[in-house]
């Protein structure tokens, strides 16, 4: 019988190239966390440790969400007909259950007929969102991008019988919290970059403030 512990083990041992990539990202995120903790005195707080745990946990969630839409067919069941599994299945659902007609029309008349143009963008954005959270890199920017992705699902699956719409809304709020409170500056690459950017020019500080 499945349970959260078994699911975590299966996730971390899942065969295929995404598993070693995830382990590399996780190891890199933990390594920079240790470096920031040791090298930057202001990082040595329990709040930063908790923020690191929260950020990396949600980063793992985003990474796991990419595993059922793997390229080149953007599914984890390539033997099934198009639209029965993976990203195409949920895009079809979104086209039928969207809260806004304009969103449904866009999916049905533009996205689905050109699925293999849009699918790499969807997959790539989710992978980059996961990597940002795991590494603590440019979290303010990718927190906003992640919130927009979740908002698309919130509205797109709003009338889907098998989904609770508030699930995606909570992800929107969570990603915005990461962005507003700069979770990347808690034992992440953003903290290291910010520490090294002190004394730099106004443009550099402005750019750093926007993305991290």
Report on this model:
The structure is a single chain. The chain has 212 residues and is an all-alpha fold. The chain has one domain (4-211). It contains 10 helices and no strands.
Major sheet: none
User: Could you name the ranges where pLDDT drops below 50 across 5 or more consecutive residues?
Assistant: none
Topology as a string of helices (H) and strands (E) = HHHHHHHHHH
Q: Give me the secondary-structure category.
A: mainly alpha
Number of separate helices: 10
Amino-to-carboxy terminus distance: 41 Å
Relative strand content: under 5%
Mean pLDDT reading? 92
Q: Which of globular, elongated, flat, extended, rod-shaped describes the shape? A: globular
Keywords:
70% helix; mainly alpha; 212 residues
What is the secondary structure topology, with strand pairs?
Layout: H1 4-13, H2 18-39, H3 46-66, H4 86-97, H5 101-111, H6 115-135, H7 139-156, H8 166-180, H9 189-196, H10 202-211
Provide a compact summary of the structure:
This protein is mainly alpha-helical and 212 residues long.
């Amino acid at each position: 019988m499945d349970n959260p512990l078994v699911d975590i083990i299966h996730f971390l041992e899942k065969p295929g190239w995404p598993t070693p990539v995830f382990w590399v990202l996780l190891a890199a995120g933990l390594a920079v966390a240790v470096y920031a903790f040791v090298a930057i005195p202001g990082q040595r707080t329990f709040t930063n440790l908790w923020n690191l745990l929260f950020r990396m946990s949600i980063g793992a969630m985003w990474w796991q969400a990419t595993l059922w839409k793997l390229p080149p067919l953007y599914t984890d069941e390539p033997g099934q007909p198009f639209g029965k599994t993976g990203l195409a299945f949920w895009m079809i659902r979104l086209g039928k259950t969207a809260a806004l007609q304009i969103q449904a029309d866009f999916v049905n008349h533009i996205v689905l007929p050109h699925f293999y143009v849009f699918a790499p963008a969807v997959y790539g954005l989710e992978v980059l969102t996961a990597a940002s959270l795991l590494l603590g890199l440019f979290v303010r920017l990718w927190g906003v991008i992640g919130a927009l992705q979740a908002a698309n699902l919130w509205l797109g699956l709003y009338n889907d019988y098998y989904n609770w719409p508030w699930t995606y809304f909570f992800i929107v709020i969570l990603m915005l919290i990461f962005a507003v409170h700069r979770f990347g500056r808690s034992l992440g690459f953003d903290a290291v970059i910010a520490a090294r950017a002190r004394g730099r020019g106004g443009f550099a500080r402005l750019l750093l403030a926007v993305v991290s």
